[in-house]
Amino acid sequence: MTTERSNEFRQSIVTTCPELSGRERFKAHLRKVGSGEQTSRGMSREESADALHLILTAQASPAQIGAFLIAHRIRRPEPQELAGMLDTYRVLGPKLKSANGQKRPICFGMPFDGRKRTAPIYPLTALVLLNAGQPVVLQGGQRMPIKYGVTTEELFKALGLQLQGLSIANLEAGFQQHGLALIYQPDHFPLAESLISYRDDIGKRPPVASLELLWTAHQGKHLLVSGFVHPPTEERAWKALALAGETNLVTVKGLEGSTDLPISRACITSRVQNGKPERLILHPRNHGCFSQDVEWSNLTEWSEQAMEALHNRGPLSQPLLWNAGTYLWLAGLADNLDEGIAHAEKCLQSGLAQTTLEQLIAWRETII
């Protein structure tokens, strides 16, 4: 979204029915989404932006917020509503910028409540991409409802890289120098952190969980990769992101809704450029990467497997080759998928991904 467009929505948030208090304004939004099957209506983009703004700034009451989140989940957010929520996240949330001349990053959108069934691959994929000069933006928080799965911060910490406790200024400086950023919600977006208790109380993922797959704090050109589980979610994401001005994205039916590509089945993905989706069915069997997806056990076992994979060994090596090779290709760093896999294999066999990890650890140790 351009700065001018963001300013327009910031103004619309502030001026929507200014004569009413936040709670009174919120009642109108709640009536629209919670009136029942026959009379419930979708909100406009501006109304949805205002509703989330009132929630995050605690101008709506706890009872109103809980009622809204569960009613909106039952009815399912519409594309313009998701676009409005994105507008509010872009106004109130952290902002990350690339350095002049820095390559556009890949921004990965995955469930904030983590993973519990399958071993994550994306931290290792990120290291291969970084070694190839491809910046990566990740985001997440602490373990949270409803899944309480393992988080991005925990996974990197298990590799020796502490990404918690960085100011947004330090994070941006490190991103511009080394290419990696983790937008960590407790540090960088405390307003959104206030919704965790509601997630626990309602026992279901609220609409903001869908938003987390679509939002990125990065401003400027990037490739947005968004995970999904159900086909209707994917199509809704295309429409919402088109409204929000995202012109370059990939949607992935990944492991547990993440952006990790499975190796046990065909990978259902789509590339969307300038509003036009192109379906890409990727077959790991055709590229020598077919096997069972590795099950999640615990952080200790995962870290041992991860360090092996960084040298092209062990049970995570095949999933890593498949994922890193695919994303090298999608990022334009390889002419085809096989070339991307070969590039990833060379990086891992030479120990360059491990070297990249060590450089990041050394950088982090310089920051108090």
TrEMBL record:
Pfam families linked to this entry: Glycos_trans_3N, Glycos_transf_3
Annotated keywords: Amino-acid biosynthesis, Aromatic amino acid biosynthesis, Glycosyltransferase, Transferase
Glycosyl transferase family domain span: 125-353
InterPro entries: Anthranilate_Pribosyl_Tfrase, Glycosyl_Trfase_fam3, Glycosyl_Trfase_fam3_N_dom, Glycosyl_Trfase_fam3_N_dom_sf, Nuc_phospho_transferase
The keyword Transport is annotated on this UniProt entry: no
GO biological process: L-tryptophan biosynthetic process
One Gene Ontology cellular component: cytosol
Top-rank taxon, per record: Bacteria
Name this protein carries in UniProt: Anthranilate phosphoribosyltransferase
Glycosyltransferase among keywords: yes
Domain named Glycosyl transferase family 3 N-terminal: residues: 30-90
UniProt GO molecular function: anthranilate phosphoribosyltransferase activity
Membrane-spanning intervals of the chain: none
Residue ranges that the Swiss-Prot or TrEMBL entry lists as coiled coil: none
